[in-house]
Specification:
- With 412 residues, the protein is of the alpha+beta class.
- The protein folds into three domains: 11-141, no CATH class; 171-271, Orthogonal Bundle (Helix Hairpins); 274-407, 2-Layer Sandwich (Heat Shock Protein 90).
- It has twelve helices and eleven strands.
- Strands 6-8-9-11-10 form a five-stranded mixed sheet. Strands 1-4-3-2 form a four-stranded antiparallel sheet, covered by helices on one side.
- Helix 1 (11-58) runs antiparallel to helix 3 (122-156).
- The two termini are 26 Å apart.
């Protein structure tokens, strides 16, 4: 279609669309001017006939059959609509309708000379043919305008298209982006592009600093974690009665969680491309088993729905990372399941392509509260899932907070 009604228009499509509207407007304007000029030429012919006839009767000649000289003009009155419709610049000439007949007149010192132009109007009889010709010209005009606007807009927006192609590429490289700017001659586009380059360089530098900080923190944490783990083992070996204390178990779980966080940060900042296949149900059972006391303490009803256990869901995520994500989701349920003790639940639905976690909440659904629901932050969990190409979605709906992890479909 010539007029594209896409819900997400581009700058190029907008230029083409507005060019077509401009062409259509100009076509209608010039068509109206053409009709006006044609009728004006016909009026000029009738005026010339009236003038010639007036000169003839001044010299004693007779009137033609279609003309009449009227001295009493009381019977001929022009309404305001006719005066507006048949507007004349010269006050001595005019035209009007009376019944089924159309008249042109000229005011003279002898009276009003009337010309019955009902049968003389060539343009009036040929108006249908004129309109057909104009309509036939409309389609090629629009096609030509579309072709011309397409070429013109593509040429005019070529610098913008280069910037868009460079930025929209899947793997953006600053050096390639700078190279694309060398061919741009337009000064205003260059200013915008340079601002974009500066912003991208700053973002890249900040991201590199953040990655280096995360890697450093993850490595630095591992040494004291190993010391803490060995110390816990020595304490349990030397003093067996300590291992039965709740405080000992809480400390042991805290150390295990710190190990998971450290490993996840290392995975997040690693450039290594490794293949992982993790049984989701196995990791889920492990986390629930380790957290059984915590679940019982907060009276959370864990409901697992897996219609097809034989076709188990597998995600391309390391076990440590998936354990960390599921633990954070459980922590979210504990801290933000704002319902009565009897109504607390954690609904887990597993399908061959997705695992979905749901819990009730009466919290006002907004982006800020959603980010605060996670111990590590929603951004980090999202980044971990994106790192391993796993779909992640969190949303509020009817006082239910849900999170889903799904296998992404391969691109075309």
């Amino acid at each position: 279609m010539l007029f594209n009604s896409s819900s997400q228009p581009t700058l190029l499509s907008r230029v083409r669309q507005h060019s077509l509207w401009l062409a259509l407007t100009l076509f209608l304007l010039f068509s109206g001017m053409t009709l006006f000029i044609v009728f004006a030429l016909e009026d000029a012919v009738f005026k010339d006939q009236l003038k010639q006839t007036y000169h003839v009767i001044q010299q004693g000649g007779s009137l033609p059959a279609n003309m009449t000289l009227v001295t009493q003009t009381d019977t001929f009155t022009l309404s305001d609509s006719e005066q507006l419709k048949y507007f004349e610049f010269d006050a001595h000439f005019g035209e009007f309708n009376q019944g089924d007949q159309h008249f042109h007149f000229m005011k003279t010192d002898l009276g009003v000379l009337l010309l019955n132009s009902s049968e003389l109007g060539i343009i009036s009889r040929a108006i249908d043919d004129i309109l057909v010709i104009l309509l036939l010209m409309l389609l090629p005009t629009l096609l030509l305008t579309y072709w011309f606007s397409n070429k013109l807009s593509a040429k005019a927006l070529q610098p913008f298209s280069k910037i868009h192609h460079a930025i929209a590429s899947e793997h953006l490289h600053i050096n390639e982006f700078k190279a694309a700017l060398c061919d741009i001659e337009e000064q205003d586009i260059q200013v915008i592009a340079k601002k974009l380059v500066t912003a991208l360089e700053q973002k890249t530098h900040l991201l590199q600093q953040q990655i280096a900080f995360n890697q450093g923190m993850a490595h630095e944490i591992r040494t004291p974690l190993q010391v803490m783990s060995h110390s816990m083992e020595l304490i349990s070996a030397s003093t067996p009665e300590v291992a039965s204390l709740k405080s000992y178990h809480r400390l042991d779980k805290a150390i295990a969680r710190m190990h998971r966080i450290s490993s996840a940060l290392l995975w997040l900042t690693s450039d290594a491309e490794e293949q992982h296949t993790t049984q989701v149900r196995h990791i889920l059972d492990t986390v629930l088993s380790e957290s059984q006391a915590l679940i019982a303490l907060h009276q959370i009803d864990v409901r697992i729905n897996e219609p097809d256990p034989l076709n188990a869901l597998k995600l391309p995520v390391p076990e440590t990372v998936l354990e960390l994500v599921i633990l954070n989701l459980l922590t979210n349920v504990i801290h933000h399941c704002q319902t009565s003790e009897a109504d607390k639940y954690w609904q887990i639905s597993i399908s061959p392509s997705q695992i979905r976690f749901c819990n009730p909440t009466v919290q006002t659904p907004d982006e800020t509260s959603t980010h605060e629901n996670f111990g590590l932050g929603l951004q980090l969990v999202t980044a971990l899932m994106d790192k391993f190409n796993v779909g992640f979605e969190a949303q509020h709906n009817n006082q239910v907070f849900s999170v889903s992890l799904s296998i992404k479909k391969p691109g075309p």
